[in-house]
Each structure stands twice: as C-alpha cells, then as structure tokens.
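Run log // design_07
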C-alpha cells in the first residue's frame, strides 16, 4: 500500500516553515526532518510492519549517550496534562485515510500545545526533561515494588520476620498502610 507519507507530511506541516522558520532538511519514504536554528522535529512512520506514527521534538546540539535528546508528542501532551495525551501516546495507522487524519491531528496538537517548543523555549525543554526524569523514577520505584512485594509476602507467610524486615525497610516510604502494620509487627518480633 502506498501511503505517500513524506508528501503528506510536507503538505500538512507547512505551518512549521511559514510560521516558525523551519526547513525540511531530510525527506525519505517514511521519515521527514524539519530544523530551525534551535529545534528539530522528526516525523516517522513504520509503513511496513507496526504502522506506528511518530513525532519527536528536540533541541539541536543537545545529546545523550544514545544520540539526540528528543521528546515524543505523547510525552509533551502528558507533561502538560493535555486531555488528549492518552489517545496520541502511540498511534497506529493502517490506511492512507487514517494517516491523513492523524497527521492533521498531530499538526493541530503541535500548534496548540507546543508553540514554546517550536520557538526553542529553554524552560519548556527543561520542564519536559523533569517530567521524563520523574516518570522514570516512578517507573523504577514501581518495578522495585513489584519485585520485592512477592518476596516479602513469602517471608511473611513463612514468619521469616528478619527477611521480611530487610526487604521492606528500604522501600518503607512506598508501603501501603497494611504493609506498614505488618512491618511494625515483624520488627517487634525480632
């Protein structure tokens, strides 16, 4: 199926050139890159396997160990708590008509919510980095809790209060009320 992705991107995102001074610096079948003096925008489409549509914005000259630092449209919408964020975090388009629809929606969301990013706002990029760091930290904590809780439950059932206490003390501030009560009980039995 011929999606004509890059042609559709160029016709849908003309506002980047006319209103924000971007230039299209790279155009491939499933990839289009715009750049201004401060910002880059990558639009991607996996038109052969997953059919995922992506939009990433980054500040030029800022990188990390794996390449350029960029933020997806979903991350931007989530960070500013836009009501649409869940709908556009990961989009799959399987027809040219859906591609048209979602490219138009992406352009509209970008123009509505990310004007400061399009102009290279340092504070907005910092805010996005902080949101990402916070989400990563929360994910790390949740992962630890998912690993520790089953082990603690086994120790509790086996009345191994030493092991139970050692497992839960490092995560004490994340425990539920009932877990805190069990921890207190276990500590009293040591």
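design_07 sequence
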């Amino acid at each position: 199926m011929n999606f004509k992705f890059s042609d559709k991107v160029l016709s849908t995102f003309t506002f980047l050139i006319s209103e924000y001074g971007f230039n299209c610096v790279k155009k491939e079948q499933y990839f289009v890159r715009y750049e201004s003096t401060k910002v880059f925008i990558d639009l991607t489409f996996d038109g052969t396997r997953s059919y995922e549509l992506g939009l990433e914005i980054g500040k030029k000259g800022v990188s990390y160990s794996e390449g350029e630092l960029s933020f997806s449209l979903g991350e931007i919408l989530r960070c500013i708590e836009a009501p649409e964020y869940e709908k556009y975090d990961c989009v799959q388009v399987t027809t040219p008509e859906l591609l048209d629809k979602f490219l138009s929606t992406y352009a509209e969301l970008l123009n509505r919510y990310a004007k400061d990013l399009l102009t290279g706002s340092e504070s907005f990029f910092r805010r996005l980095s902080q949101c990402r760091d916070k989400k990563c930290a929360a994910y790390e904590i949740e992962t630890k809790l998912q690993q520790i809780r089953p082990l603690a439950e086994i120790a509790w059932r086996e009345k191994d209060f030493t092991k139970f206490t050692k497992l839960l003390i490092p995560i004490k501030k994340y425990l539920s009320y009932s877990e805190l009560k069990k921890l207190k009980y276990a500590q009293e039995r040591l």
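The CA atoms of residues 18 and 69 lie 25 Å apart.
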